[in-house]
Amino acid sequence: MTLILDPDDPAGWREAPPAIDAGTTGSRLTDGLNPEQREAVEYRGPALLIVAGAGSGKTRVLTHRIASLIESREAWPSQILAITFTNKAAAEMRERVQALLGESASGMWISTFHSACVRILRREAESIGLSSTFTIYDSADQRTILKRIIKELDADTMGFTPASAQAKISKLKNELADVETHARNANMNDPQEVMFLEIFRQYTRRLRAASALDFDDLIAETVYLFRAFPKVAALYQRRFRHILVDEYQDTNHAQYSLIHELTRPVPREIVDELDAHGILVRGMTDGSGAIPGASLTVVGDSDQSIYAFRGADIRNISEFERDFPGAKVVLLEQNYRSTQNILSAANAVISNNFDRKEKKLWTADGDGDKIVGYTGYTAHDEAQFIADEIESLHRAGVAYRDIAVFYRTNAQTRALEEIFVRSALPYRVVGGTKFYERAEIKDAMAYLIAVANPVDELALRRILNTPKRGIGPATETALASFAEQNELSFRQAMRAADGLGLGPKVTGAISALANVLDEAAAMLVPSAEGLEAGTNAGAAKVSDVLVFLVERSGLLDALRNSRDPQDETRAENVEELVAQTRDFDRENPGATLVDFLTQVSLVAAADELDDASGTVSLMTLHTAKGLEYHAVFLTGIEEGLLPHQMSASEPGGPAEERRLFYVGITRARKRLYLSLAMSRAQFGEVAVAMPSRYLQEIPEGLIDWRQSPGMATSRGGTQPRALNARRGEPGGAWGTRDRDLERFSVTRSDKPKTEWANRVTGTVRDNGDLTLAPGDRIRHTDFGEGKVTQVTGEGTKRIAHVSFDTAGQKKLLIKIAPIEKL
DNA sequence: GGGTGCGGTGTTTTT
DNA sequence: CACCGCACCC
After folding, report:
1. Catalytic (active site) residue A815
2. Domain of A504: which CATH number?
3. Residue A747 forms part of a structural domain
4. For this structure, is A58 an active site residue?
5. Does the active-site annotation cover A391?
6. Domain housing A238
7. Any catalytic annotation for residue A412?
8. How far apart are CA A598 and CA A591, in angstroms?
9. Which is more confidently placed, A613 or A45?
10. C-alpha dihedral over A272, A273, A279, A285, to 10 degrees?
């Protein structure tokens, strides 16, 4: 029988730990595991490193390990802290543990690094002089602030850009270097460094003044908190007896330090103090009166380390045994996900990275199908191949949700989306241009932030003249300097607008806005009973506050009454945001506005994935980490894209790009497609693309080239040859056989060269109310003539299923397809 | 104070 | 190509 503790129940912190009753770990939790997995579940000791190759069942091992700790009564749920890479992974892990235990195990902290830190920081905010309603600034917010600072300091003349300053500040924070630490190491004779220091100092000051933290601060400030307040740290060190970290290869120095602080023993003096404060420590101390450090389990695979650009340090995992002497290491190599052909390709590619521990994935499930390769002339050609192939997989019974398309850069979605829309292929772009990044949504969110955190000047300045109320830059500056001179916040200056001697119209507008914000703030105060009980009872719901704000501020009306046709969509987006807050209120009863803002700030791209959706998923290779699909399309496998141009100059760049390719390959269960284009439009210009060097690292026999780079380059003879296809050796590495050439020349028919370049980007058609019925014959500009076999869908989404005479079966969106009825 | 249009510029991956 | 900043005009 396991006692479940409520995480928010203060008693949970005082509850006696369960008696250790080793040996009761039910075999149920290790049944069906291989010997290595079993060992990873059952090992007990201070430190455990699970080196888990792709698809080796590490999530299974982690969930079973947690369940076994709880079931054997070695730990309460509240003593578990598990760190995952996305919120979605956290939710899944929680569900799986609960399913294993057969009861709710609330009280466990299963979350991302960032979520866990926000939770700690909001709770302990006052220790470090921060408001518990602090705002979390995203990259765009950082950029805005840095832009202002650089402009004020004229730092652009020294070559500083918001992006460069942002990167440098982020890098320092990930190394736990704050302004003063950095100042000590800086070379004050270098004017550039002096200037950077000033930018960094101002940036830090402004975030402080706004009671705001950026993403990197969330981790770094938690570490500073623990280091500066050992008694605060002790609360968490005492509580979390078992810490588990997933994707450990992608932790940066700050995250590593956080884990280090959390696993420290609590010294005897502090234990005594905790005891004096009524916090239960009996039974937790060792012979010396100290509480020993928590046990640490990390899971990772250095071959999948792909976040060096945000400070991930591969040494955290490769030197784990040195950092934690006596650590146990368990190696999981058996793969339960992919076919041997896919694994062989992955093994071959990754073996080209030197300086790695030899590890070979294997499966007992057989070779499976060959990997399919395709080289298009353009990105659209490549996309068309993918769309056709997806349709044929779908006809063969593969659900759309089991198919994913990966790419290196977000810009690559363009061509894919164009073709997918035309092919009436249901798809969803995961990540990319996010809903919350739209200007109107950021505006509405800024209203909420301004209410939740009144000292947030960035949010206030954003909404000051949105919608237009005649408050221009001059008035804004007047308010800002009035605030500074009188040591007021920007918000207080707004309330005092009457005394500023501004025009009556402007003054009225400022006061009206200040009033709306004050009224909204009043809505959020809990009732007397709520305050008494320390809950949010009686406070207005997030959706009610948002509706009040967007109505009373005039934001929604301004969009609705605008003559800009795009504003109609923007108004709908704001209404969609309202709908989202309603969902939030319903799903999180008792949650506060700050809870909502936090959740929005910390959504990861992969969190948007909806398993129930019947759509193909499109995402970057980075977002794909940790996921798996029946069929995977890796696109744009070209020099310059993978490896990316920008990585060439970075130390370790090409090796990291190879790991990215490796991650992509190992996401596939049964079918893997590798595709590329001969030419790719990069910022307007069409550039010649070469096959990626990584393609040749895959043994030839594993790939079935439907159209190889050799075949494609031979067209017209004017294109450069495939990379590394040796001169004087016909076909080179790509095996350009005559038979293929013949087949190829038939495929491309007699179209002139230029047709390939613009066949899709040309005009966006609108066939209006063209009606088609089964039996009709049509002509398509690319596919030629064909017969309509079926029409599905309604209105603008009507889809014609066409059997083309030479191009085979296709689905077309009638409204925009380049077709005519015959 | 607000709107339009020109020209310059950047250009990876993400919590 | 797309976005942003700036200058110009109302």
Report:
1. no
2. 1.10.486.10
3. no
4. yes
5. no
6. 28-126+218-332
7. no
8. 11
9. A45
10. -30
Q: Is A53 annotated as a binding residue?
A: yes
Residue type, A388: D
A58 in a labelled binding site: yes
**Is nucleic acid strand C under 7 Å from A684's C-beta?**
yes
| Domain end (from A660, A695, A713) | A713
Residue A612 among known ligand-binding residues? no
The answer to whether residues A444 and A565 belong to one domain is: yes
Environment class of A383 (CB within 10 Å of its CB; exposed 0-12, middle 13-18, buried 19+) = buried
Secondary structure (DSSP) of A714-729: TSTTTSPPPTT--TTS
And the tokens for A77?
């749920």
Q: Which nucleotides of C are covered by protein (CB under 7 A)?
A: 1, 5-6
End-of-domain residue from the set A713, A741, A768: A713
Claim to verify: residue A470 and residue A596 sit in the same structural domain: yes
Region of poorest pLDDT, from A108-122, A195-209, A467-481: A467-481
- In this structure, are A40 and A188 located in the same domain? no
Amino acid at A293: G
- Please give the structure tokens belonging to residue A756: 């390939």
Instruction: Express each pLDDT in A706-743 by its tens digit.
Output: 887 766 654 433 333 333 333 223 333 333 322 232 22
Does the C-beta of A353 come within 7 A of strand B? no
Q: Are residues A564 and A668 in the same domain?
A: no
Q: A381-424 pLDDT, tens per residue?
A: 899 999 999 999 999 999 999 999 999 999 899 889 888 988 88
Does residue A354 reach within 7 angstroms of strand C, measured from its CB? no
pLDDT tens string A433-443 = 678 888 899 99
| CB-strand contact A309/B, under 7 Å | yes
The more confidently predicted of residues A102 and A342 is A342
Q: Is the pLDDT of residue A288 over 90?
A: no
Which pLDDT score is estimated for A432?
65
Tell me the helix, strand and coil percentages in chain A, rounded to 5.
50, 15, 35
Residues 90-119 of A with CB under 7 A from strand B: 112-114
pTM: 0.84
Q: Do A484 and A549 share a domain, yes or no?
A: yes
A275 and A196 in one domain?
no
A59 is in an annotated binding site: yes
How far is Cα A346 from Cα A529, in angstroms, rounded to an integer? 61
Claim to verify: residue A562 and residue A621 sit in the same structural domain:
no
> Within 10 Å of residue A473's Cβ, how many Cβ atoms?
8
Q: Round and report the angstrom distance from CA (A443) to C1' (C3).
A: 19
Distance of CA A262 to the CA centre of its chain: 25
Domain count, chain A: 5
Residue A734 within any structural domain of the chain: no
Using a 7 Å CB cutoff, list residues 414-433 of A near strand B. Answer: 431
Which CATH number is A100's domain given?
Answer: 3.40.50.300
